[in-house]
Amino acid sequence: MVTRILRLPTVKARTGLSRSTIYMRISDGRFPKPVSLGKRAVGWVEVEINDWLNQQIESSRKAGH
After folding, report:
1. d(Cα 31, Cα 38) in Å, to the nearest integer?
2. DSSP letter for each residue of 12-37
3. At what angle do helices 8-15 and 46-63 cross, to 10 degrees?
4. Phi, psi of 47 (to 5 degrees)
5. 3-state SS, residue 39
6. Cα–Cα distance between 65 and 24 in angstroms, integer?
7. pLDDT score recorded for residue 63
8. pLDDT tens string 16-40
9. Coiled-coil annotation: which residues (predicted)?
10. Is the pLDDT of residue 64 over 70?
11. Do residues 24 and 30 touch, judged by C-beta distance below 8 A?
12. For residue 49, what are the CA distances in angstroms to 1, 4, 33, 38, 45?
């Protein structure tokens, strides 16, 4: 399996969250932490973002019942 790293614009597009909301949730422990790609670059592991999205869908569907 290939590990893909997603940059912030892609993470924002996939989740529908703003930059500030993403970083606020990271600090609260409610969003996957980014990995360092260099001095001033970070990215997110695609599988972790997909898992987070699936958890959000599951909890949303359970709350609706």
Report:
1. 21
2. HHHH---HHHHHHHHHHT-SPPPEEE
3. 20
4. -60, -40
5. coil
6. 29
7. 77
8. 999 999 999 999 999 999 999 999 9
9. none
10. no
11. no
12. 16, 11, 10, 20, 7
Which two three-digit tokens encode residue 38? Answer: 């260099």
Residue holding tokens 């969250």?
17
Query: What's the pTM?
Result: 0.91
Distance CA 39, CA 65 (A): 46
Question: Identity (one letter) of the amino acid at 27?
Answer: S
Averaged pLDDT score across all residues of the chain: 95
Distance between CA atoms of residues 2 and 26, nearest Å = 24
Tell me how crowded residue 20 is: count the other CB atoms within 10 A of its CB: 8
CATH number, domain 5-63: 1.10.238
